Amino acid sequence: MDNFYSPEVMDHFINPRNVGELADANGIGEIGNAKCGDIMKMYIRVENGVIADVRFKTFGCGSAIASSSVATEMIKGKTIEQALALSNREVIEALGGLPAHKIHCSVLAEQSIRAAVADYYKRLGIDPEPIVGKVFTGEELESMHDA
User: Fold this and answer.
1) How many H helices and E strands in the chain?
2) Are 70 and 92 in contact (CB under 8 A)?
3) 36 noted as active-site residue
4) Are the CB atoms for 109 and 31 separated by under 8 Å?
5) Residue 52's CB: how many other CB atoms inside 10 A?
6) What average pLDDT values come out for the chain (147 residues) when binned by 10 residues?
7) FRET pair for 96, CA 20 to 30 Å: which of 6, 9, 68, 137?
């Protein structure tokens, strides 16, 4: 595994940050990719427009776990707008790169954040699509590698 993954990926896989459920979450997003079997569930607690806390539960490979872990670190304490601006490319860069066949894991992390923010807005009775954009799920994700 060390031959394929950066030290950052290995660190986030072996010592993932922000793992688990968030009991007082006011936004929850779950994204899965049937082709690879990875499933990410992101929990956020938004206070005054800021991601005050974030947790994740991921079923998947080391790259999926590392992508989830680093993404939570990158959005914690950020505004909703900053969290929505996080791209899969930034997740990859923060991890020191991912093998080409694992790029989809960074897309799952990006989309699980978007899904959690969309859920947050839905709970407020606000249509999330004009704010969050389209949240890609299932088969749509299989073709996304560099969104």
Assistant:
1) 7, 3
2) no
3) yes
4) no
5) 15
6) 80 97 97 83 98 97 96 98 97 96 93 97 97 79 50
7) 137
